[in-house]
Amino acid sequence: QVQLVESGGGLVQAGGSLRLSCAASGRTVSMYVMGWFRQAPGKERELVASIKWRRDTTYYADSVKGRFTISRDNAENTMCLQMNSLKPEDTALYYCAAAPNWNTDPRNYEYWGQGTQVTVSS
Known about the structure:
The chain has strands spanning 3-7, 10-13, 18-25, 33-39, 46-51, 58-60, 68-73, 78-83, 92-99, 111-112, 116-121. By secondary structure, the chain is mainly β. The radius of gyration is 13 Å and the shape is globular. The termini are far apart. The model has no long low-confidence stretch (mean pLDDT 94).
């Protein structure tokens, strides 16, 4: 079993930055695909960014390309999402998740954190 805990959310003005962190415990997730999802009120959960265990392959949603950067430290069982040039439309609950293989479908992800709120004011 894997437990995922997110941190780093908060309130920021448009154009600002936040860094989200995800800490895994219970068992190693070093072989898993790790991803960040977000869900805004009334909208479906969407994959924002993901990274393979070797860190040689990443995925970014078009809406965040060039602004967000995903990274992971397999030795520490952690993952981060650096978010720059934040926009009001980035406001959402952000979730850390782990999947056994590469897929953008949230149903593929086995383990989920509780989420951390990101609010971007205009």
